[in-house]
Write a structure and sequence with these properties.
- This is UDP-N-acetylglucosamine 2-epimerase domain-containing protein.
- Pfam families: Epimerase_2.
- InterPro entries: UDP_GlcNAc_Epimerase_2_dom, WecB-like.
- One of its GO terms (molecular function) is isomerase activity.
- With 357 residues, this protein is an alpha/beta fold.
- The chain has 2 domains: 188 residues, Rossmann fold (3-Layer(aba) Sandwich), CATH 3.40.50; 143 residues, 3-Layer(aba) Sandwich (Rossmann fold), CATH 3.40.50.
- Helix content is 41%, strand content 15%.
- Strands 3-2-1-4-5-6-7 form a 7-stranded parallel β-sheet, with helices on both faces.
- It starts with a strand and ends in a 5-residue tail after the last helix.
């Protein structure tokens, strides 16, 4: 049997094409949600027309602060044992596989749960590395742990395959990321917005929002950018909380050319992206989406593990004011044709999972 274990909005978006293909082929699967982020998942489920979770490991408020993590992670680890209802009655040691995705705490929780149950673990978006355990933190450590806990590694390209070649695992090059399939579906179905020219800001990484000095500096840059362009700043719950705690939210709110928006449904957000002039983000998924759309994208990080768009439409800021200025002075240079291609990473993964149907 196939179990899908995830906990964040981004993970659900990237897993949705796989879940949709499984359903279309009449293959049953057990959908386990860790409870890490539950807000807005109903919109994603509705957009992609997939089933809701069969089981929530924890059921409470979203995990928006570091202080909430220990208790939530403890519950995830203690409530996924052999007697847990989350495994749909499957016995310990059964020939099952647990699909986990990416580099979140839910990824690690799912991989550990699979190991304890004696199930195989398949890691999607595997092999990505920064080669710096502190950047991004804790994502790089989670990746390293998950590579070793999993027995099947689905890598988005040959570089990622090479990064895990020494581990002697079953590796498959999926010829891209499942985000390609998600973006293709979303853009096809989304409503296009008729708005004056605007750019989008989306920030959520720990390394940015929990570094007080850096977050203040980023807010200053966003305010500077808003003097030239209309800005829509998408509010991730942890980001909004930090901005409010540091009295930065009111500073942004006072700017006439900045609109602070609650997170949107994925298809609506994709429609917004398709009409934007630029994207400023620290999210890997956003970077991938922008590369498929040919959207000028400034990544607010020192480095990225993802090859998508780099050297084409994507610029890594390295928190360098000169790099940021150059990007906005030459936006047209970074506007490219959209590239979706015919390949489907999700189809490759589902085909490879055939022995678990």
């Amino acid at each position: 049997m196939i179990h899908i274990f995830l906990g964040t909005k981004a993970q659900l978006i990237k897993m949705a094409p796989i879940m949709k293909i499984l359903a279309d082929r009449g293959i049953s699967y057990n959908f386990v949600h860790s409870g890490q982020h539950q807000e807005t998942i109903s919109d994603i489920i509705s957009d992609f027309q997939i089933k809701p979770p069969d089981h929530y490991v924890t059921n409470g408020p979203d995990i928006k602060s570091k202080s909430q993590v220990p208790k939530w992670l403890y519950l995830c680890l203690t409530q996924t044992g052999k007697n847990s209802p989350c495994w749909a009655g499957r016995p310990k040691g059964a020939s099952d596989v647990v699909l986990v995705h990416g580099d979140t705490l839910s990824t690690l929780a799912g991989a550990l749960a699979a190991r304890r149950m004696g199930f195989q673990c398949a890691h999607i978006e595997s092999g990505l590395r920064s080669f710096n355990i502190w950047h991004p933190f804790p994502e790089e450590l989670i990746r390293l742990a998950t590579f070793r806990l999993a027995s099947i590694l689905y890598c988005p390209d040959e570089s990622a395959v090479a990064n895990v070649s020494n581990l002697k695992k079953i590796t498959t090059n999926t010829q891209g990321n499942t985000m390609l399939d998600a973006t293709r579906l979303a853009v096809k179905a989304s409503v296009r917005f008729s708005l004056p020219e605007f750019g989008i800001v989306s920030l959520h990484r720990y390394e940015n929002i929990f570094n007080t000095e850096r977050l203040g500096w980023i807010v200053e840059k966003i305010i500077d950018i808003s003097k030239e362009y209309r800005v829509m700043f998408m509010m991730h719950p942890p980001t909004e909380k930090r901005l409010r705690d540091l009295s930065l939210y009111s500073e942004l709110e006072a700017q006439p050319n900045i609109e602070l928006r609650k997170r949107m449904g994925y298809f609506d957000f994709s429609g917004l992206l398709a009409n934007a002039k630029f994207l400023l983000t620290d999210g890997g998924s956003n970077q991938e989406e922008s590369s498929y759309l040919g959207l000028p994208c400034l990544v607010m990080r020192r480095a990225t593990e993802r090859a998508e768009g780099v050297g084409r439409n994507v610029v890594i800021s390295n928190y360098d004011s000169q790099v940021i200025s150059e990007f906005f002075q030459n936006l047209s240079k970074y506007r490219k044709e959209s590239i979706f291609g015919a390949q489907s990473p999700s189809d490759i993964i589902v085909d490879h999972l055939e022995s678990f149907y």
